Amino acid sequence: RSEKEIRDFIRQTLIKSHTTAPEVEARVLHRLGELDYVNDEKFCEWWLSQRQGSKPKGIRLIRAELAQKGIARALIDKAVSRSASDERTLAYRAINKKREIWRQLPLLARKKKLGDYLLRRGFSSDVVRGVVDDVAENV
Fold it and tell me: How sure is the predictor about 18, in pLDDT bands with cuts at 50, 70 and 90?
């Protein structure tokens, strides 16, 4: 979990315990940090590897997810820049199973389905255009 998610959980737990002592929250977060349980940099790298695994997602969507989890923009940029995966390769992997499902569709319908699917997965429109043109013609 990110530091923000852990902080929110601690606050909710303290409220349920009928206390809102900020020093308790600070001590708990400090101790978790000492034990290396709260590390946004490691969380960022883990999240990126998970999102590029079996069901790849685009960098744009990954950035949005990390920002929603309270990760600082600098950490997001650092993790994304270290990611060696090419977004185009990830897009090909993402549509690998879908290609077979949409094989029987006419060319325009197939292109639309493939493009919409990749855009929903967070890939940039430039990558989507290139991959869809390549894949739809070669199915």
Answer: confident
